[in-house]
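Contributing: when you submit paired examples, paste them exactly as shown. First protein:
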Amino acid sequence: MKLNKLFGLLAGASLLAFSACEPIEDRDVLKNSFDADNIELAVVQATNGGNKLSIQMNTPGVTGYWDYILDTKSTDRVEVVFPFTGTHEFTYYATTPYMTNDTPDTKEYIQKSVTVEVTQLDEPLPEAYYALVGDDLGGKTWVFDKDYQWSDGQNLFWAMVAPYNWQELWWNAGSTCCPPGDADGKMVFDLAGAPNYTYFTSPDDAGSLGSFAFNGDFTSITFNEQSILGYDPARVNPDSKYEIIELSSDRMILYTASNAGGTGWLWVFKPAE
């Protein structure tokens, strides 16, 4: 009996040793099992073809963020007044517990998109769009306001200011010695199927098309694919994002607190005549 027990213990130990040499898991099985087909998306329009939208992710237990062209939001629902007509695709990025390159800060996302057709702008837009693009939303051209007067009476349109206070003037570059190379250029904004921004370096330039985007509370504007008028690699914001100091029908003042030169910078524009 004792001999049988001894053989049993030896056999069990051999099995454990053999098992320890085998992989604990099949790595091919450890992959993202999330299925985009199981995520329910919807866009609800307040009116037929209207621009007041409720963009929804309706699957319980799923978290992530929406990319709805104008901005991104980490939420399952976005309520927005969309500013232009056309067929548009919104994408939801669902967070999964799987990590890319086995690092916690690179989680894997899966994505799913939904489309909507906006045929009419029946809901009034936020005032910032009318100021930037025009009262009829048909497009608007902006140039430097070279007659804008600073608090001390001097003209100012492109200037170095403090990175902590846009009202603290350090150097009135544009109106003194050193205006930007595109000082006579222009910017055109329109909503013809997209938030279009066209940058012209001079009156004779054919123009280069990009896009623009406001943030959610209309306190900043980002220029995509093209530079802001008044381009200088040491002066512009590397992220092309600018704080809106003033945006009205007759003036736009933009500011960055961080540029490649380590200072703040100020731009003053007016509608072209």
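Second protein:
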Amino acid sequence: MTKKLLTTSLLGLSLATAAGAAQAEEITLNAVSFTPKSAVVSHGFEAFVEAINEKFDGELQINWRGGPEVMPPFRLADAVRNGSIDMAMTSPSYYSGLVPSATASNLSFKTYDEIAQTGYLDLMTEVHAERGLHYLGEIPASPVKFFLFFKDEVTGLDDISGKRIRVFPTILPFVESLGAEPLVLPMGEIYTAMERGVIDGFAQSNLGWVDQFEDVVNYYVTPPYYRAGFNVLVNPEAWSELPEDLQARVQSYLRDELAPEIDESWNDIIATGYQQMDDAGFQEVELTGDDADQYLSTAIEAAWDKLAEDVDPELHAKLKAMLVD
């Protein structure tokens, strides 16, 4: 082999080796959640991060930097869109101003599997792309429902009217339709607002906070309403750094394998939440018969009517068919 040919061969081998190393380089996405790492409601995202990091070790790692202490929850979606962070796990209602239709996923009593079979995930991918976000999928918590909690006694629907109730945006139309006065506040401000009498009650699930609220809560209303689910948003530019094959495998893994498992993993956590309410002495105010039917129908119809004001009629009809009908 001539010296020139040998040099050319070595150069080609060097370039090929460098290309292979570049392809094999592990990609890291920095993520922030709308809840603290230690919060019970972060259970699903913790499972997601651990599973992704294990399954795609050597290809992709998610660096979960933290929650509200890193960035205010209501700013997460915009931060993902402008590239301040690569990924966020957030409540759909926390970015309803940017993607109003995202809140529809809460306005249902269906399970994740039932919703996934309707084409909802693909539709949300398209809708989010129009707003400069990549919708990776949902961290579902379908068995997790929401309640109204109060310090002072309520005996029925009439007693709820006129109350000042903390809500997140998705629940606002429902509470307003009950004749109450809704006030949007982050979860971290609920206790202080109750303690100071700024609010009379609040809308929330029963996960992980009960033992801290014993002195400001005495009653909760049933039946519970809606379903919980938290969206994983990725900055499109950061997402594009993943090879297309890896993109497809990560997204499919979350949507088709991991999300159904997470959706079924909440039962013990929910049972603990109920036990904590019992231990704290919270008294159930159970609506029955027509009152219960009216309560749940108001929860659904008020929210969907409000959503109709914010989204295209065709999109609204598609979403309601997927999530309610």
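If you have annotations for the second protein, write them as plain sentences, like these:
The two ends are 74 Å apart (CA to CA).
The longest strand covers residues 134-141.
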